[in-house]
Specification:
Mean pLDDT: 88
Distance between the termini: 147 Å
Radius of gyration: 42 Å
Low-confidence stretches: none
Shape: rod-shaped
Oligomer: single chain
Number of helices: 1
Number of strands: 0
Order of helices and strands: H
């Protein structure tokens, strides 16, 4: 065999190996890329859910705080009105003379 013929056989073998490698890359490489993209989407979705839950927790905490504050005000007002009612009951109203 002459060198030209050997060179052609080596070139064909290199092209065959490169073709198989390219096919393997397409099959397995794209699946790895696909898995990475799916993992990124999943992590992004979970981060969005975490952000929404954190905002909801903060909103509910503020709402509970404000509700407790209003409740304390209402309880104070109720106690004040009860004291007024008791003081009004103890004071006798003058009877009408007929």
């Amino acid at each position: 065999m002459d060198t030209n013929h050997k060179l052609k056989l080596v070139a064909i073998a290199v092209l065959l190996v490169a073709g198989v490698a390219a096919f393997m890359y397409l099959v397995y490489g794209l699946t790895i890329i696909w898995q990475g993209m799916a993992a990124g989407v999943t992590v992004g979705f979970l981060l969005i859910l975490l952000f929404i839950v954190a905002l909801l927790a903060i909103y509910l905490w503020i709402r509970i705080f404000l509700t407790r504050r209003a409740l304390v005000r209402c309880q104070d007002r109720l106690e004040e009105l009860e004291r007024r009612l008791e003081s009004d009951k103890t004071v006798k109203k003058p009877e009408k003379e007929s």
